[in-house]
Amino acid sequence: MITDARRAHPTVSVRRLCALHDVSRSWYAHQLGRDVLDRDQLLAEDIEAIVLQWSGYGYRRVTRELARKGRPANHKRVLRVMRERRLLCRPKRRYQNTTDSTHSETRFPNLLPHVIPSRPDQVWQADLTYVRVRLGFVYLACVLDSFTREVVGWSMSRFMDAALPLAALNNALAARCPAAGLLHHSDQGAQYASRVYVDRLRSMGVTQSMSRKGNPYDNARMESFYKTLKAEEVDLQEYLDLDDTQQQIDRFIGELYNRERLHSSLGYVPPVEFAARYHSA
Questions:
Q1: Whole-prediction pTM value?
Q2: Which of 141, 113, 119 is closest to 275 using CA atoms?
Q3: What is the mean pLDDT of residues 55-71?
Q4: 175, 153 in Cβ contact below 8 A?
Q5: Looking at residue 77, what is its pLDDT?
Q6: Res 103 pLDDT > 80
Q7: Distance CA 218, CA 129 (A)
């Protein structure tokens, strides 16, 4: 095929190739267009397989995932193919306040801007959110490692009381066993300011930090995680009840988000892999 000859001899002019093969330049252009379409179709199939698993992936993450699978492609070409086939995600951008900061408990200063995490279990960030089920809502509390972006503890409940984030915290402490001096950052919600929660942090030698009142962006990494969770898991499901929700979200966080999903701020590797690279180095 003349296009194969062109790839084998890139320095040979198109005019000379057409003369050698006794074909017109218009025929060659047509064949070249067909070849590009065939290669785009193969790329589109690879992209569709990735987007089917990761509906929230944009073209950058898709490009990285293709390279990890041994099928590298230029990011501009990936973007073009995704646009042509309407495979680009359109994430919902909205903020739902779940914080009750109208309480009389102690509020802690915001220490997060003064600490740049350089290792795992140096800074944890915590927050809670709601999840719609068939007959109402259930609630999810998570603890995120600020350095590795790994969700190190989480818990679900029908009630949004202090026991919910406390269970997530205890799960994180049991899984990670952090040394004294860990910084714990949250909003000013009543759950995180409750005596039982504060006492648990103090008993473990953990320093407590809180966002400014009414400013969710002080805890931006948690907000970013919840946006991902909603876009790539919660908004795609119709949960029956707490048990059904917990089973699906446990799978998403523990298996997909922590171990498989590429994280842009980590150089497009999953959090667990990023942590493993840190420890091996």
A1: 0.69
A2: 119
A3: 84
A4: yes
A5: 86
A6: no
A7: 16
